[in-house]
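I am still getting used to backbone structure tokens and would like to learn alongside you. Please make up or recall a protein chain and show it to me in full. Would you write everything just below, so we can both look at the same thing?
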Amino acid sequence: MTLKIISAQAIVYQGEVTSVTLPGVMGSFTVLRNHASLISILTAGTITYMPADGAEQSAQINGGIVDVDNNLVSVCTY
């Protein structure tokens, strides 16, 4: 699946991943390939993701939203 993490200043990450863990309002949740479509608000915290060809990486965010649809995880942060 493809992960895009975008802030107002730059594209933080864009690439293929096997999993993404996000800081949701009601707690962290993980998205895997073929996850059901969803839109969620994110709180301040850490996004952790596993690139398809590398070691686990992370990005700190102050909050935002995520849209999951057809193996595309789009995160807009602020």
